[in-house]
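Pasting as-is:
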Amino acid sequence: MSIQTQTQKPEPKRPDSIRIPADLRSYLRGEARKNTRSYSGEVVHRLEASRQADQQTQQKGQPQ
């Protein structure tokens, strides 16, 4: 890890407004409770997992 990376401040979190169907919102809220996360934390966790899966898929498709 370089010194520059250590001194950088994390990007501030900003609210985003997205439309989520009521049934999906209810499902995510229930899953957040089961996983002892906030609703927002559950959404971020699932989006991050999706991003990592996408990156792994892309890496598998690249020639070595």
